[in-house]
Amino acid sequence: MDGLLAGKAVVVTGAGRGLGEAFAVHVAQAGGAVVVNDVDVELAEHTAANIRAHGGRAVASGHTVADPAQAQAIVDLCVAEFGAIDGLVNNAGLNYEALPWEDDVDQMRELVEVNVLGVMYTGVAATKAMMKQPGGGSIVNISSGASLGQRKLGVYAASKGAVASLTYSWALDLEEVGIRVNAVCPLAHTRMVWKSERSLRACPPDRTPSRIAPVVLFLLGAGSAGITGQMIRCNGPQLHVMGQPFLKEPILERAVWDTDTVQRAFDEVFSAHLENYGLEKRVPPRLRKWTEATSTPLRSA
User: Fold this and answer.
1) Given strand 179-186, what is the order of strands in its sheet?
2) Residue ranges per structural domain of the chain
3) What's the rounded Cα separation, in Å, for the pair 44 and 62?
4) Smallest Cα–Cα separation from 26: which of 203, 193, 220, 202?
5) pLDDT of residue 127
6) CA-based radius of gyration for the chain
7) Residues 272, 266: contact at Cβ < 8 Å?
8) Quick check: helix, strand or coil at residue 289?
9) Which of 99, 113, 127, 217 suits 3 as a labelling partner, its CA being 20 to 30 A distant?
10) What are residue 214's phi and psi, to 5 degrees?
11) Which of 161, 214, 149 is nearest to 188 (CA)?
């Protein structure tokens, strides 16, 4: 890891504790200079001081990513302190569990402002700065496997699905200017996991944030040149590329669709092709009904 990010300057948001702290510390250990950002400025200062105490370069930022002017200030701080911004890790995020009828509007809004708009505000500011310097840069967004759907995490899952879509689109927009955009879907034993008994069962204490950090370092470093638009999931022992949305076969075509022909399409064709939904991989009721009724595929319309 030594020297992997030598001479590079990286912003890590939400770096006061947990995953963000691990990312910031590992960036510094790899030779990079770090802006340690967290709305809890005391935690940010603590992480930055720890990095400096071990010979690294770091400065703390207490700005919130949910405000565009403050997000810009985070990037400006990196350029002012270290002369450039070569990497951005959009890690700041909120999470809570609630069933849809229990959701609080203010809590929903706050989560979206941090998890979605915060990624956008900071990413746009970083992109503008990276385009002014030679060599481009690398943006690593922190998404989540919950974007596939998970019980009691609807708002959080939606926010991380937005981050995934943003990653794909920004990768397309920025590849010609030398800025790579990827996303990591981590599973680590952090405060977010502590709030959920289900998550605690799936994520034992040995799944520490430091086990995710090498993936982020790789995506920030030169070794990942040419890799962009990817969703990488790591839960500690497992590492894999997540599939992206696609148009699933069969694709039926008619000059004009009406409700009767749509009904036939689902009754005769699509009922055998419905997707399992959510991380629990539940089978859609229509597909369960079709499976119980027949063991042979129905003919195409």
Assistant:
1) 57-61, 33-37, 9-12, 87-90, 137-142, 179-186, 231-234, 239-241
2) 9-241, 247-301
3) 7
4) 220
5) 98
6) 22
7) no
8) helix
9) 127
10) -60, -30
11) 214
Q: What are the pLDDT digits (tens) for 11-46? A: 999 999 999 999 999 999 999 999 999 999 999 999
What is the residue-averaged pLDDT of the chain?
Answer: 90
CA distance 20 to 175: 26
Cβ neighbours of residue 100 under 8 Å, at least 6 residues apart?
154
What is the C-alpha separation between 122 and 90, in angstroms, rounded? 8
Query: Closest by alpha carbon to 61, among 33, 30, 31, 86?
Result: 33
> Any idea how long the chain is?
301
Q: Which are the catalytic amino acids?
A: 156
Q: Note the CATH architecture for domain 9-241.
A: 3-Layer(aba) Sandwich (3.40)
| C-alpha 79: how far from chain center | 24
Strand extents, DSSP E, the chain: 9-12, 33-37, 57-61, 87-90, 137-142, 179-186, 231-234, 239-241
Interatomic CA distance for residues 221 and 138, integer angstroms? 8
Q: Is there a contact between 87 and 138 (Cβ–Cβ < 8 Å)?
A: yes
E strand or H helix that includes residue 10: strand 9-12
